[in-house]
Amino acid sequence: MYLEHFKLRELPFRLSPDPAFLYPSQIHSRAKAYMESTIWFTDGFVVITGEIGAGKTTLIETFLKEIDQDVVVAQINQTQVSPIEFLQAVLAQFGFSPWRMRKAELLATLNSFLIEQYANGRKVLLIVDEAQNLTHKVLEEVRLLSGVETTKEKVLRIILAGQPELNEKLDSPELVQLRQRVRLRFHLTALTEQDTIAYVRHRLRVAGAEDREIFEPETFPVIYRYTGGIPRLINTLCDTALLAAFAQDRNTVSTEDMQAAVGELQWVEYAARTFSQLGAVMDDTAPQEQPPVGRLVLSLKGAQVSEAYVVPGRIVIGRTSDNDLQIESKYVSRHHAQIVTTADGSSIEDLNSTNGMFVRGKRVRRHKLQDGDVVKLGMHELAYFRAEPPPTATVTLQREDYDAADDEEDAEVEDERDA
Description:
By secondary structure, this protein is α/β, with parallel strands linked by helices. The protein is built from 13 helices and 16 strands. The protein has helices at about 5, 25-40, 55-65, 85-95, 105-120, 135-145, 165-170, 175-180, 195-210, 220-225, 230-245, 255-265, 400-419, and strands at about 45-50, 70-75, 125-130, 155-160, 185-190, 295-300, 305-310, 315-320, 325, 335-340, 345-350, 355-360, 360-365, 365-370, 375, 380-385. Strand 3 (about 125-130), helix 6 and strand 4 form a beta-alpha-beta unit. Helix 11 (about 230-245) crosses helix 12. It is globular and about 70 Å long.
């Protein structure tokens, strides 16, 4: 990679949420202060929203790193769950083994735990990331949990973080009681142009650049124009530009390198960008009119889980829903791998994942995808095919199908456990 060339200790623009790289912009500092207020106030209930890539998860990780030892934390990242599964996940975070408990027992155990922690002088905090995926039924459970109290005060603090759709859910008539419990709601906006410049320099400094100017001043307007100040897009563009400069054996990134990166990613300016709704296909950066050049088939134990088409650009693959292709498995890292597609074809790259990726039984860091290749990611297999899709097809399993199937499964699970 380019680390030695630019005299850096670590990758400055990787996508994993490392608290050391958090840039304390005014907007992020304010959001962090609201999170901290959940500890100060006995009725702390805060909602933080922001677009994909705005820095919500990094903010949470930074907040948790600085939290006092007398705070007991449950952090939930998997949010496509039934009410019973949600309660089980919360109790599991608190050290219980709740998998055989019925709902009444789950609630009784959780209530007793909260009261016990309060009696011992400890605060309890529940953080739910990607909360926009919670169903109304699960959000109602959150409301009920927020009401657990002693004679003097409530004993559970709550932070819900998610994409803007979370606000739409909270504003629905069905959740008016939950909405009334929320003390603070805050939306993370994109960085300003000046903050974008400071953000890039901050990450380079943390990575070992110190005061060296690796990006020439003329590149910053280009960065802002093509990213709109979205941190995740800044990381993607700057990382690609560093590779372009490295390939040309340059010690600084020029506007020529930046334009080469934009060309490789096939981005248009942020203000003119058409956001695609293809599901797990694009990095919400590629123009919608680009024709698909390949197909991905995700399978688990021989059964197909989902199918998506590949277009020029970048597809990030990982466990959480902020990825372009989500694989819900504990064996898959938060941001596990990425597929970069250019005119020369598609390549898959490991993003410093815990369990790595394997092709034909061999662990690889980067692999040029050929028709029929199968990449092992944890317990899942991702097959790549160079094939032209039907012009009107997108993803075989749409989000509404998931939601409907989840509702039916939730009902069956609750009926079975209550029987």
